[in-house]
Amino acid sequence: MRVQIDQEKCCGAGSCVLSAPEVFDQREEDGIVVLLDAAPPAELHDAVREAAAICPAAAITVEQVERV
């Protein structure tokens, strides 16, 4: 899994941090999302997908990466 964020789209709702705090954080000054782990371990994939799905600004993109 590869995770990308678009800080320009982020509205600072924080739902991503609540869903996957190991992967997302927020900047202190304005609440904009900060990506902590662009390639999270498998046990966090469901939480990351949920964070992307509930993001009100659609600022999170999740891409499934095939391992060879």
- Measured distance between first and last alpha carbons: 13 Å
Strand residue percentage: 15-25%
Strand segment tally? 4
Shape: globular
Q: What is the residue-mean pLDDT, rounded to a whole number?
A: 96
Rg over alpha carbons: 11 Å
Please identify the structural class as seen in this structure.
alpha+beta
Count up the helices: 2
Low-confidence stretches: none
Biggest sheet strand line-up: 1-4
Summarize the main sheet.
2 strands, antiparallel
The amount of helix comes to 10-25%
* N to C succession of SSEs: EHEEHE
SSE layout:
Blueprint: E1 2-5, H1 15-19, E2 24-26, E3 33-35, H2 45-54, E4 60-63
Antiparallel strand pairs: 1-4, 2-3
Summarize the structure in short:
Helices cover 22% and strands 21% of the residues.
Descriptive account of the structure:
The chain is of the alpha+beta class and 68 residues long. 22% of the residues lie in helices and 21% in strands. The protein has helices at 15-19, 45-54; strands at 2-5, 24-26, 33-35, 60-63. The protein starts with a strand and ends in a 5-residue tail after the last strand.
